[in-house]
């Protein structure tokens, strides 16, 4: 970066030149142009990320209404979907909609499972991204 050239005023206060002001404006404009597409890509990727219910490592378990994983065949629990839901589908369900292919109680159990995701669990990063303000 080039050191700014300043004109000395009679009061010995540094006053930026017109050229310096124009260059500063150009730098700010280029920063805005580069940041906006990055934010748009981030928002799109959050909506396209996926959350498996449950993750592959625990695919044989059922999901209790509380969202906890329980052994398969547990009365009142629901089998895993065997598929992943997109961030957009989960976002809509968290706002009062339903996950595709689920009834009311099953939807609630799956959403409770998603809310209980912990760091290191498949889908956690996607869910955490949905929680960040835009």
Structural summary, described in words:
A hairpin with a 5-residue loop joins strand 4 and strand 5. It is elongated and about 80 Å long. The longest helix has 31 residues. With 134 residues, the chain is of the alpha+beta class. The chain has a three-stranded antiparallel beta sheet. A two-stranded antiparallel ribbon has the order 1-2. The model has no long low-confidence stretch (mean pLDDT 79). The protein is built from four helices and seven strands; from the N terminus they run ββαβββββααα.
Mean pLDDT: 79
Quaternary structure of the protein: single chain
Which regions are unreliable across 5 or more consecutive residues at pLDDT < 50? none
Order of helices and strands: EEHEEEEEHHH
Alpha-carbon distance between the two ends: 33 Å
Instruction: Give the strand order of the largest sheet, numbering strands 1, 2, ... along the chain.
Output: 5-4-6
Radius of gyration equals: 26 Å
Count of helix runs? 4
What composes the largest sheet? 3 strands, antiparallel
Give the proportion of residues in helices: 40-55%
Question: Which class do the helix and strand fractions yield?
Answer: alpha+beta
Proportion of residues in β-strands: 5-15%
Number of strands: 7
């Amino acid at each position: 970066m080039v050191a700014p050239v300043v004109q000395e005023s009679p009061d010995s206060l540094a006053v930026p030149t017109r050229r310096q002001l124009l260059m500063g404006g150009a730098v700010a404009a280029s920063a805005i142009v580069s940041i906006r597409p990055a934010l748009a890509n981030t928002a799109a990727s959050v909506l396209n990320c996926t959350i498996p219910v449950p993750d592959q490592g625990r695919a044989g378990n059922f999901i209790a209404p509380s969202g906890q994983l329980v052994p398969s065949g547990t009365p009142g629990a629901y089998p895993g979907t065997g598929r992943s839901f997109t961030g957009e589908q989960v976002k809509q369900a968290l706002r009062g909609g339903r996950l595709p292919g689920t009834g009311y109680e099953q939807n609630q159990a799956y959403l409770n499972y998603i809310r209980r995701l912990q760091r290191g669990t498949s889908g956690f990063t996607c869910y955490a991204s949905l929680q960040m303000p835009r």
